[in-house]
């Protein structure tokens, strides 16, 4: 098989968690108290999120999925201990089983206040948690090329990660996220300048609060030299997060080889995202290339086959096969 350039060496993961009151079963606006009980480490930093019912753990860049798994595991243990000391449980789920009875977004953070002013009722009760994967790239032009190539695979990553069952959907989080302007699969970009211009245009139009924000399911990180996958629901386990990271990095590596991606229609990609949110891996999916319904597991198998050269080059193919086997 063709070798895959090692231009995407590092991976990092941001995990968002819900804080649930053990007595009532509802999410609790206690993020500040929990975060005060944990300390950043060389492996992981802890952050507040938009909702006061959420906390985030962000790993540093890792080259090994083993190191990544260790960092994720230690972060979960630290947050679970801190939450327990506050009478709370740490829940890794895309949306809460029982949401908070309070408004969850505070105006204490000036940027969060601008978000609340801009999106009003859309964010007042927004308690959606994701598993965001950062993959290192050598430059922004390569990053944009990656975005163009991986667009059709994003719905499959969503189906694989679906972890917010509610109202008949496998990923209710994605339904909630679709209420924001510009949510979904990003358009095709001609280059980094075009990407920046499109973000700036949406800021000028008032649908984004600043140029660090977007609602695309994959984007260029506004702060780091990475491509950021934002499509997945919060991962139930560390192993699920590692699987998402390994597949995401492999997708970036294959995309970095160059060439023009096979065109897919924006409306078909949107149909694929909706179908993935509705059924997850347990039903049909939309094939963005053939523009028809197929079993969701067939697209997952195609994804693994697509990135097999990258996984083999890193010695991760067996691990991915094992982890996928647990999901299907």
TrEMBL record:
Keywords: ATP-binding, Ligase, Nucleotide-binding
Name of the protein described by the UniProt record: Putative glutamate--cysteine ligase 2
Gene Ontology biological-process annotations: modified amino acid biosynthetic process
InterPro entries per UniProt: GCL_type2/YbdK_subfam, GCS2, Gln_synth/guanido_kin_cat_dom, YbdK
Pfam families: GCS2
Family in the record: Belongs to the glutamate--cysteine ligase type 2 family. YbdK subfamily.
Catalysed conversion reaction: L-cysteine + L-glutamate + ATP = gamma-L-glutamyl-L-cysteine + ADP + phosphate + H(+)
HAMAP family: Glu_cys_ligase_2
Enzyme Commission number(s) of this protein: 6.3.2.2
Origin species: Lentzea jiangxiensis
Keyword Ion transport: no
A molecular function GO annotation: ATP binding
Superkingdom: Bacteria
Function: ATP-dependent carboxylate-amine ligase which exhibits weak glutamate--cysteine ligase activity.
């Amino acid at each position: 098989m063709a070798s895959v350039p090692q231009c995407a060496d590092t991976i990092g993961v941001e995990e968002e968690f819900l804080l649930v009151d053990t007595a009532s079963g509802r999410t609790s606006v206690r993020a500040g108290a929990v975060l005060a009980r944990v300390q950043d480490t060389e492996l992981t930093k802890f952050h507040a999120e938009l909702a006061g019912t959420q906390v985030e753990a962000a790993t540093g860049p890792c080259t090994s999925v083993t190191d990544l798994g260790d960092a994720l595991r230690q972060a979960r243990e630290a947050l679970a201990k801190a939450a327990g000391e506050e009478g709370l449980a740490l829940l890794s789920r895309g949306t809460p089983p029982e949401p908070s009875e309070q408004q969850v977004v505070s105006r204490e953070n000036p940027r969060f206040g601008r978000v609340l002013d801009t999106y009003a009722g859309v964010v007042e009760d927004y308690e959606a948690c994701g598993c965001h994967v950062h993959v290192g790239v050598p430059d922004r032009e390569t990053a944009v090329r990656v975005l163009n190539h991986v667009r059709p695979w994003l719905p499959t990553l969503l189906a694989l990660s679906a972890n917010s069952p509610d109202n008949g959907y496998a990923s209710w989080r994605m339904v909630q996220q679709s209420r924001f302007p510009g949510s979904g699969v990003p358009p095709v970009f001609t280059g980094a300048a075009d990407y920046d211009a499109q973000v700036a245009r949406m800021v000028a139009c008032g649908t984004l609060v600043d140029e660090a924000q977007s609602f695309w399911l994959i984007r260029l990180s506004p702060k780091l030299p990475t491509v950021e996958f934002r499509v997945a629901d919060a991962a139930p386990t560390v192993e699920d997060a590692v699987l998402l990271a390994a597949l995401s990095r492999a997708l970036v590596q294959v995309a970095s080889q160059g060439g023009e991606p096979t065109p897919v229609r924006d409306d078909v990609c949107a149909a694929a995202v909706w179908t993935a949110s509705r059924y997850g891996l347990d039903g049909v999916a939309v094939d963005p290339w053939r523009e028809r319904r197929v079993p969701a597991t067939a697209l997952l198998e195609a994804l693994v086959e697509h990135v097999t050269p990258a996984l083999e080059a890193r010695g991760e193919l067996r691990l991915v096969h094992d982890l996928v086997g647990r999901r299907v």
